Task: inverse folding
């Protein structure tokens, strides 16, 4: 596994060793003395177990302690406060001038193509210190939230993105799990070496838009967390490869929650004004054990979602077919629907989800986790097949905690 930075480790974690003990990825540690060469030797990045006094057996209490310490240690430092206010002011100016704030990066583990988007797409208001209820039962406060409209008058506005200013890489468990429970982009900006007199509009502009190509020594100060379930929304797959204007999510969920999830998908489909099956179709295939074609179809779809698909549901799944959202204004509601779907699948429900970048794909190479095609002289990596990162099994491994949320209404 290739890990490029502490933020990258947070995206990929949490990690367990062979004894199923929680470990952290360390990118720097104190050099060790080499007696034979009479000089200090720099240690390579490595995994190590957490100190016993850093890990509490009760994970919910651990999260709360990390949040309490986070507020105490960094919330009101002069550098953090000034950087937050300057950044919020800059974003509000962009919003008032109706200018976009585009981002892009390539996840080379997953694809040969870029992910890109506009952080200010459909944003109505920008709010500092925004309270957020995590799906693992504890509250969190984002430094800056980019908020859209309320989908219903009695609900809070939908979150379209958030920005975090980070001085250290502390509170790793909390931030790791938060990054796995998002239905929107999260931009993390490192202010570890920032000085108070360096904070101005030029710093803000550089910190929010810096890329690996423009950063000094190729080490950017920002990191964009995009949940795997949102990769299909932001991945720019060329039309000559996609050959379709629609893509599909293959969703496996336990029978007890199957109808409720279908109801949620239909509810938001109706709320956002989609009728019929042209833009959004919530299909409900059922296995016919007496039909070989049905058996083969389930085997194909299940292999895309993951090897353990039968543990979720071996008799039926949801085939969610949607038009791929473009950057045009006419697709704004379609874009929102994709964000809501991602949030439902990775926070509200325990699901296993596969992805087909166009309809009719067959999983001929079941050992490969990435969709690939032959492209002249090399294999072209398109996108990952499995897009779910189920947070519930992760938390269940530590401790059973209820799933809560207040930003998207889940109809009964």
Result:
């Amino acid at each position: 596994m290739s890990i490029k930075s502490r933020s990258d480790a947070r995206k990929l974690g949490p990690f367990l060793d062979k004894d199923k003990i929680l470990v952290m990825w360390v990118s720097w540690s104190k050099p060790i003395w080499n007696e034979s060469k009479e000089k200090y030797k720099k240690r390579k990045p490595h995994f190590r177990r957490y100190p016993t006094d850093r890990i509490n057996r009760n994970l919910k209490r651990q999260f709360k302690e990390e949040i309490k310490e986070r507020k105490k240690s960094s919330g009101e430092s002069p550098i953090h406060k000034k950087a937050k206010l300057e950044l919020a002011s800059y974003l509000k100016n962009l919003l008032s001038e109706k200018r976009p704030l585009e981002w892009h990066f390539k996840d080379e583990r997953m694809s040969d193509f870029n992910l890109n988007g506009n952080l200010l797409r459909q944003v109505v208001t920008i709010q500092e210190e925004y309270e957020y209820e995590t799906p693992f039962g504890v509250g969190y406060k984002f430094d800056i939230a980019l908020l859209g409209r309320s989908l219903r008058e009695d609900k809070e506005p939908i979150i379209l993105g958030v920005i975090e200013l980070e001085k250290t890489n502390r509170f790793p468990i909390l931030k790791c799990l938060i990054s796995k429970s998002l239905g929107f982009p999260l931009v993390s900006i490192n202010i570890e070496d920032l000085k108070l007199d360096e904070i101005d509009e030029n710093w803000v502009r550089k910190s929010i838009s810096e890329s690996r190509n423009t950063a000094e020594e190729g080490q950017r100060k920002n990191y964009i967390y995009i949940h795997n379930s949102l990769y299909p929304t932001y991945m720019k797959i060329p039309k000559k490869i996609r050959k379709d204007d629609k893509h599909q999510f293959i969703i496996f969920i336990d029978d007890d929650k199957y109808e409720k999830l279908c109801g949620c998908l239909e509810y938001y489909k109706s709320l956002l004004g989609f009728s019929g099956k042209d833009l959004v179709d919530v299909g409900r295939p059922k296995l016919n054990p007496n039909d070989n074609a049905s058996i083969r179809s389930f085997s194909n779809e299940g292999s895309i979602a993951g090897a353990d698909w039968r543990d979720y549901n071996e008799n039926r799944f949801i085939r969610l077919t949607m038009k791929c959202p473009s950057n045009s204004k006419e697709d704004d509601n379609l874009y929102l629907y994709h964000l809501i779907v991602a949030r439902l699948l990775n926070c509200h429900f325990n699901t296993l989800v596969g992805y087909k970048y166009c309809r009719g794909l067959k999983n001929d190479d079941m050992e490969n986790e990435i969709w690939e095609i032959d492209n002249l002289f090399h294999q072209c990596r398109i996108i990952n097949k499995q897009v779910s990162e189920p947070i519930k099994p992760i938390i269940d491994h530590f401790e059973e905690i209820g799933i809560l949320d207040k930003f998207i209404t889940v109809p009964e």
